[in-house]
Write a structure and sequence with these properties.
The structure is a single chain. This protein is mainly alpha-helical. Helix content is about 75%, strand content about 0%. It has two domains: about 1-180, MFS general substrate transporter like domains (Growth Hormone, Chain: A), CATH 1.20.1250; about 190-410, Growth Hormone, Chain: A (Up-down Bundle), CATH 1.20.1250. It has helices at about 1-35, 40-70, 70-90, 95-120, 130-145, 160-170, 170-175, 195-200, 200-230, 235-255, 265-285, 290-320, 325-355, 360-380. The longest helix is centred in the first third of the chain and has 34 residues, at about 1-35. It starts with a helix and ends in a 38-residue tail after the last helix. GO terms for molecular function: transmembrane transporter activity. One of its GO terms (cellular component) is plasma membrane. This is Major facilitator superfamily (MFS) profile domain-containing protein. Pfam families: MFS_1 (PF07690).
């Protein structure tokens, strides 16, 4: 395992630097947008456009890699991301920001595709599970750590944008320095229609869609929610970091619980209690806004439940299909999640614009209550009884980046051609 880690360390360092820069930028844009007087509905639309760019990348990245090769495609997209990071402060205007945000989403998710397909090619089958878990950990730590960089300056200046661009640009160096061969694996994923996925596991599709509807606004609009509560940059950084880290830890017991009971009921449990904690966040924001620790606790509990829904949905799908279809099926779930992530921020942005800060967790609660009802009706009508002893797979925490990370999933039986 040590030799494997040494060989792929350059890829992990690049991923960490990219996530530091891009996650810092995501929060920074909302803060700068507030300072520029941009409306909540515009900032919601800005987040939606980011996920639209991400969706475009999932469709086009493979073609770019075939045309350019992994290293040149990585360098091209990283340069695009670094330039777009600085372009936000070159021309501060809503239409310009929408265009740049689309390019940002496209660039970062194309980079995910390059690095994850490369990582697949360098990972031996017996180590996939551990490398997959380490990759997930690196993602969570980088996103949480990036928020602390907000303390270096305020959003009205140029320094934080420069730092974000520097981090993204620095990510080119480890990949350029490495002696790793470019992978010879086929980056085209086997096809499986969304209809077949929905027919095989409708609750998995529902869980991913709702996860996108809720987490899309959470990642994109939480800085606006916190800013309207009067938090300082230090308190904002602590809130987001603790919410992400706390949520990452809480999702494990929730996910492991799904190995011992009907996973559909665990998803329903996550929806219901996620709605409860969302209401608690909103109530605290209205009447106990100075109780920073209380709101942070509710946010961490909420994150833990909702972040767990996507990996539980994936493993529920694996229970219903053959394991060699995991990559194709999970790719469809990722697209469903992306659709939710595109729709959610636009709706939540309008709510924030007209109802104030407390509207964001109320939006979460409304979405979760509606889909809890739909899921409950489905379970009552379903003739399929899911027996935990018949589970074909086990819960594995995972991130939602590109479909090329899916062959590393421990349950995947896809055969990869090694270089």
């Amino acid at each position: 395992m040590r030799s494997i880690l040494v060989s792929i360390m350059a890829l992990f360092v690049s991923i960490f630097l990219l996530l530091l820069g891009n996650s810092l930028l995501s929060t920074l844009l909302i803060l700068r947008g507030v300072e520029e007087g941009f409306s909540g509905k515009f900032l919601g639309l800005l987040t939606s456009v980011y996920f639209l760019g991400a969706f475009a990348a999932t469709l086009m990245a493979s073609t770019l890699i075939k045309r350019m090769g992994h290293i040149r495609c990585f360098t091209f997209c990283t340069a695009l991301l670094a330039c777009s990071t600085l372009a936000y402060v070159v021309h501060v205007a809503p239409i310009t920001w929408l265009f740049i945000r689309f390019l940002t989403g496209f660039a970062i998710f194309a980079i995910y595709t390059v690095l994850e397909s490369w990582l697949n090619g360098q990972t031996q089958d017996e180590y996939r599970s551990r490398v997959f878990s380490l990759y997930t950990l690196v993602n969570f730590v980088a996103v949480a750590a990036s928020q602390q960089l907000l303390l270096l300056d305020n959003a009205t200046g140029y320094m934080l944008f420069i730092i974000a661009s520097l981090l993204v640009t620095a990510a080119i160096m480890p990949v350029s320095w490495t002696r790793l061969q470019q992978p010879n694996i086929a980056i085209d994923m086997p096809s499986m229609s969304i209809k077949k996925v929905v027919d095989a596991a409708p609750v998995a599709a529902l869980g991913c869609f709702v996860s996108g509807l809720v987490l899309g606004p959470f990642w994109g609009l939480t800085p606006l929610f916190i800013t309207e509560l009067g938090y300082t940059n230090k308190e904002l950084a602590a809130f987001i970091s603790l919410s992400i880290l706390g949520g990452a830890l809480i999702q494990y017991p929730v996910g492991l619980w799904s190995d011992y009971m009907d996973r559909r009921r665990v998803i329903l449990f996550s929806f219901v209690f996620g709605a409860v904690f969302a209401v608690a966040m909103s109530y605290s924001a209205l009447y106990f806004a100075q109780e920073r620790g209380l709101i942070t606790l509710f946010s961490a509990l909420f994150c833990g439940l909702i972040i767990a829904v996507y990996p539980i949905s994936v493993v529920h799908l694996v229970d219903r299909i053959h394991k060699d279809h995991l990559v194709a099926g999970s790719s469809c779930l990722l697209m469903i999640y992306g659709l939710g992530s595109f729709i959610g921020p636009a709706i939540a942005g309008f709510a924030l614009e007209y109802m104030g800060a407390a509207a964001l967790p109320i939006y979460y609660a409304i979405v979760l209550v509606i889909f809890s009802g739909l899921l409950l009706i489905h379970l009552m009508r379903s003739k399929i009884v899911e027996i935990p002893e018949d589970h074909e797979s086990e819960f594995v925490a995972m991130v939602r980046t590109s479909q090329n990370v899916l062959p590393m999933h421990p349950e995947s039986e896809e055969i990869l051609d090694k270089p």
